[in-house]
Structure formats: C-alpha cells, structure tokens
Amino acid sequence: ERAERERLARELASHRAPPSVQPEPAPRRDAAPGESFPAFETWVQDGQNQQKSYEDYIRAAARFEAQQIFAAERDRIAQEAAAREELEQARAFAERAAQFRATHADYDAAVGAVRDPVSPLIRRAIQESPVGAQLLYHLATHPEDRAQVVMKTTDPDLLEDARALRYLGKLEARLEAATTGPARTPAVTTAKPPIKPVGGSPVSGDSPPDPNSEDNADDHIRFWNQKEQAGRRR
Predict the structure, then answer these.
(1) Is 126 exposed, middle or buried (0-12, 13-18, 19+ CB in 10 A)?
(2) For the segment 159-203, what is each residue's pLDDT rounded down to a tens digit?
(3) Is 208 left (phi over 0), alpha (psi -120 to 50) or beta?
C-alpha cells in the first residue's frame, strides 16, 4: 500500500504545473443526475485539483456519489408527488363527470366523437375546473367555442395557450353561472311594524329586558325604576 501511494505521488507530481503558469481554480458545482465522476488522471489535471492527493480524489468521488444519490431521491419524491396529485385530480374529475353524465345521456358519445387536439395546459385546466365535465360537453357540442381552445399548430405555443385559457375562463364563468343560477336576494317585507302602545306596560319578572333591543329600551329603564322603588319601600 505504501509503494502504491508513493507511485501515485510521483504520478501526481508529474502532472503538476509550475506555479507561474498554474490555471485558475474552476468553480465547484453540484453533480447533475446521471453524470459520472472522472478518472483520477482526468480529475487531477483540473486546475483546482492539481495540488491534491489521491485521498482527496477518493473523498471527492464519495461526495459526488452522495450528491447523485440525493438528487435521484429528490427527483423520485417529486415524481411520486406529481403522480399522486394527477391521480387525485383524475379521480375528482371522474366523479364530477359521473354526476353530469347522469343527466346527459349523450355525454360519452359527444365527447368521444371529438378528435381535435388540445395542449396539455388546456387539458389540465379542464380537468381541474369544478365544471370540467360541463366544459368538456359544451366544447364537444359547440364547435365554434371548441375552435377557440384547440391547438392551431402541432407544437404547444405559449401565446396560443394564453388566448385559449382566457377564452376557457370566460366559458367556465358562464357555465358556473348557469349551474348555480343568479344570486338570490332575501325578500324584504313592505308591511309596517306594529304600533307600540304609548307608555308601555308594567314590567314583571326578575330578568331585565334586553337593553340592546330598540323595542325594549323603555321597558329596560322601567324595570330598573321599579326595582329601585321596591327597594325604597322595604
């Protein structure tokens, strides 16, 4: 082992550049997933590694391997979370579609007959919408509206998606209003309130009337006046 270290030290010395022409150290960076760590001969020629030993190389390789493992695990967790979210959205949409299908027997036939392509962004917006099934059915049965949201080119286009999303949002608001109906205002009676007798009536009981009620204000004052007079007579 000692002979091997001495051989590596001699090999390392042969690769070192003179101090006057030594290159600037390269900035450290994290390993990208799938990237392989270079061999010692390549690694030691890097400007920041020319003065390092084989033990430094081993530590750097171990650090690189750990970064690869952590990056792969991070990607796996993110992918699983995205898959769970997509599955939950699909399940929720299926439930809403089943409810809508119960009142629209031609839902499957109408939606299944449409072959116009839509971008992934528009597809997801329809799936996430609380009236997604109504949107899908409406687009299937109204070609003039469907033409505003389908893809005009074979590749997704951000400006095209933005226009389609704006149109889809207006259509969604219209369908939501049709589903819930206009907001109802509480009925207001036009009858006049009953006339309160002048002077009120004697107050009885041990609990005073509610002082916050406009109708009970006089009774509240009368209650405490009677209490005070009763106290004086005792």
Answers:
(1) buried
(2) 888 999 999 999 999 998 887 755 455 555 555 555 555 554 444
(3) beta
